[in-house]
Amino acid sequence: MLRQFLVQVLWAMLSTLGFGLMYQMRTKKLLFAALGGALSWSVYYLCMRAGMHEMTSYAVAAGTGTLFSEIMARLLKTPVTVFVVPVNIAMVPGGALFHSMLALMEQDTARFIERGRYTLSVAGAMALGIFIATMLFRIFSQSLAIIHGKAGRA
To answer: Which of 91, 92, 83 is nearest to 32 (CA)?
Structure first.
């Protein structure tokens, strides 16, 4: 089980690294993005092992990756999208999308609907996780700004 976990986390990290290289991320940011990709996949894997529903696991993992991205963006003074996209890329249901399109091309309506619904469910769960994490981070940041008397300053 540990070996399977480590292999999956390594592949998630490498896929994030590859995505970052493809889009010419700088070395320091690339390293943190790869760590975020490993973190996101680790959370997904552990949620699944804990018995959570698959879509809930995707939402929690995407939310965790987004919180990591928000923090790294602030620390490295970088737009958050530089991290959010690569950090969550390993969880994108590319295989399911391929199989749903293949079913469409083969005119297998039942399989197309089944795979398409799954693909949209994963994408929706990830979007929900990203949205919730972003909103929570903004609320937290604004609350800190109010406490420290920095609210309302431009």
So the answer is: 83
Structure tokens at 143: 């609350």
- Number of other residues whose CB lies within 10 A of the CB of residue 148: 8
41 has pLDDT over 70: yes
Residues 6+ apart with CB under 8 A from 146: none
**Domain residue spans in the chain?**
2-147
154 pLDDT band, cuts 50/70/90, is: very low
Question: What b/e string do you get for 56-71 counting C-beta neighbours within 10 Å, with b at 16 or more?
Answer: ebbbbbbbbbbbbbbe
Instruction: Give residue 38's identity as a one-letter amino acid code.
Output: A
- Quote the Cα angle for 21-76-67, to 5°: 85
3 state SS of 69 = helix
Q: Per-residue b/e over 111-145, b at no fewer than 16 CB within 10 Å? A: ebeebbebbeebbebbebbbebbbeebeeeeeeee
